[in-house]
Design goal:
This protein has 97 residues and is mostly helical. 55% of the residues lie in helices and 0% in strands. It is built from three helices and no strands. It has helices spanning 4-20, 25-42, 47-64. Helix 1 (4-20) runs antiparallel to helix 3 and helix 2 packs across helix 3. It starts with a helix and ends in a 33-residue tail after the last helix.
């Protein structure tokens, strides 16, 4: 799996170069380089396939790991007490000295 930041950066660069319509050798080489790199990163052989694969990879990244809710400092209902908190009455924990 390519780094999502690098992939997004290459996609943006590719779009910029395509929109600018390369007018000289330098910009044509830059577009060819970005095209080649996108194909390598996505393990494809054409830019069309590379763009589709990049979209699929990035969509998978966005749905693969949901971001957990921020901690509020109070346990949610049914959550275990904080490990450093002393056991409360009726917690089922017996302290032995």
């Amino acid at each position: 799996m390519p780094d999502p930041k690098a992939l997004r950066s290459l996609l943006a660069r590719y779009a910029d170069l395509r929109i600018a319509a390369p007018r000289n050798d330098e910009s044509r080489r830059a577009l060819a380089d970005v095209t080649y790199t996108l194909c390598v990163m996505t393990a494809t052989s054409t830019i069309g396939d590379a763009l589709e694969r990049a979209d699929a990879l990035l969509a998978g990244v966005a749905t693969a790991a949901p971001v957990p809710a921020p901690a509020t400092g109070t346990p949610t209902q049914g959550a275990a007490p904080h490990p450093t908190a002393p056991p409360g009455e009726g917690s089922g924990v017996t302290l032995v000295a």
